[in-house]
Amino acid sequence: MALTGDGKSKWGILVFASILLLGLMGVPVFAAYAQVTIPPPDQTGVTPLAAPDPATTNPRYLSGFGLDDAYTIFYEDRGDTAGCAFGARIYYNQTTTGAFGFAAASTATNICDTHFVVKDWPITIPAPDPNAGDYAYRGWGAVGNNPSHTFYVSNDLTNWTLISVFTFTDPGGVAPGEGVYYGFHDIVELDGEYYGFAEMNSGRTVIVHSLLGDDVWEVVASVGGLNPAHGPLHLGFFPGITGPTPTGSFLLMQVDGQLVYGKTSMPGDDSGIYLAINPPAAQAATPAAAAAAFADPANWTWRDGSTGLPDADSLILGSTAGAGGHDILETWSPPMSDPSGDWVLLYTGEYDAGGGLGNRAFGCAAVTSDCTVTIPPSAPVMPAATATRQGGADDPFSLPETGFPPGVGTRLPARPSGRPYWETSLRLLIPALGVELPIVGVPLFGGEWDVTWLAGQAGYLEGTAFPTLPGNTALAAHAVAPSGLPGPFANLENLVYGEQVVILSGGSAYIYEVRENLLVRPDDRSPLRHEEYDWLTLITCEAYDALNGTYGYRRVVRAVLVAVESR
Q1: Are residues 232 and 99 part of one domain?
Q2: Domain identity same for 429 and 357
Q3: What is the CB neighbour count within 10 angstroms for residue 311?
Q4: More exposed terminus of the chain, fewer Cβ within 10 Å: N or C?
Q5: Which of 371, 402, 432 delimits the end of a domain?
């Protein structure tokens, strides 16, 4: 059966997009500096969330979709198996105000299943299938402990239509004779195709691939398991282990100052949650390169960059034993619009209600008071800054100051004749902000770019890569104009991952997609670092200090070339 999918999720490229923790969970006091670690022992509360009501649910296997504080979760209620030939009734709950905004009562769907994974990806089921038509949602289940899996579609979240029961193929012989029993632990769309982690009954975790994101899947690599032969993410030799479990969503996050895909995993004894990361896939210059990097198991490591058995530095959430403790079962994370933002980890847990573990409910962990724990931020070691030009008096001392005092007019001095700006035929477009500007060249002189006279223009900073050529191109514009009113880059902080920035050159449009939105100090030159691919770095000022008349930080948006079109 051939299906077609548009691969467009409401929150962009994942989301995982698409956490964290980590030291990953970033609580940005300033996004480029504040990376926060949730260390062991467990820092979460010992009581479950009040809603969904723990007295009326027995949840397992979270999945969902959404963004930031507004999202939908699906779960299997082990307390409701009436009429179920296998698995348990699937329920869902929605919130617009984060983890404490769930309704007390969840909504039951019309299906029973297990390991149910849901995405808000529209899809068309073609004729002559009796269920032909357009659908807004997709879901996959596991049909209990056997190699069969289910593929569903829906338009209302409650009523799901079973399209097929299928099995995974293994054309590459990654795990000869083994079957994928427990199903998906999240799926991501990359370069118009689909990738996921799936769990085998042997304790092996595999990377699987589908052209259309439907019911045709193949195993492409082994990424982790009980022994080193299963891949770099080794989770063997834990006491009482029955097999490692990938858990949770793929998430785009910032870890120790770099963008990564994050994915949680846990040993079979449920002793804690570990973070695995894939930096190359998150930092790839093109969608095709991101997909290839994602599917390469060599790019997946523990959060500290190690492989093999994880150590304590990769343990991000731990179970607590004894009276009042709880056992963490599975996790899921809402995708974030800002990968450097605070990461929320929802989980199902088994709580001690006074007579030992047994009361299953939902829990939440994050580095905010909203999720029970506050940990002071710590600054990671930032990469060494390198400008494109090296050596000599023209090395830049700092990022240019691109703003004037807000709310008051500033009389500009005469422009020095020896350092003129030069015209280009290029224009900068930022569709999400309604910005279109001509681009002029700003000379680098005496270690400074003087952008005082940019007015309503974007300034190409001499010494960085010329716009549209390979390398790192830096463009600056005012956050506050000389009039005291907002300048062209006043809203740069609102750009999020995946949004477009365009340079028009002749009859061509060079389309870049945002990968990072950071706040850095003026003397942090890392945004000017050399790149092999075509990157675009937008710079403006932020945080005006009226006492000393200067801006304390620079807002930096980094985007990578993804397409060139004729216009």
Answers
A1: yes
A2: no
A3: 11
A4: C
A5: 371
* CATH of residue 235: 2.115.10
CA-CA distance, 124 to 134, in Å (whole number)? 4
Q: Which of 272, 291, 344 shows the shortest CA–CA distance to 71? A: 344
Supply the range of the domain harboring residue 426: 422-566
Same domain, 346 and 426: no
* 471 shares its domain with 357: no
Domain final residue pick, 371, 387, 412: 371
567 burial via Cβ count (<10 Å: 0-12, 13-18, 19+): exposed
**The model's pTM:** 0.64
Residues 364 and 436 in one domain: no
Using CA atoms, how far apart are residues 108 and 110, in angstroms rounded to an integer? 7
Q: Amino acid identity of 395?
A: D
Query: CATH code at 486?
Result: 2.40.260.10
Q: What is the pLDDT along the chain (567 residues), one digit of tens a residue?
A: 334 344 333 323 222 233 222 232 232 222 222 222 333 333 445 567 888 887 788 899 999 999 888 899 999 999 999 999 888 999 999 988 888 889 999 999 999 999 999 999 999 999 999 999 999 999 999 987 789 999 999 999 999 999 999 999 999 899 888 889 888 999 999 989 999 999 988 888 999 999 999 999 999 999 998 888 899 998 875 555 566 788 889 998 877 767 889 999 888 777 778 889 999 998 887 788 899 999 999 999 998 889 988 877 677 877 765 556 677 888 999 888 777 667 788 888 887 766 556 678 888 887 554 453 222 223 223 233 333 333 333 456 678 877 777 777 777 776 666 668 888 889 999 999 999 999 998 888 777 888 888 888 999 998 888 888 878 999 999 988 888 888 899 899 899 888 999 999 888 889 999 988 888 888 888 888 888 778 999 999 888 777 777 888 889 999 988 888 877
| Per-position DSSP letters for 498-540, written without gaps between them | T-EEEEEETTEEEEEEEEEEEEE-TT--GGG---SSEEEEEEE
Q: How many domains does the chain have?
A: 2
Rg, Å, the chain Cα set: 25
Give yes or no: residues 556 and 471 share one domain.
yes
For residue 123, what are the CA distances in angstroms to 17, 92, 315? 19, 21, 37
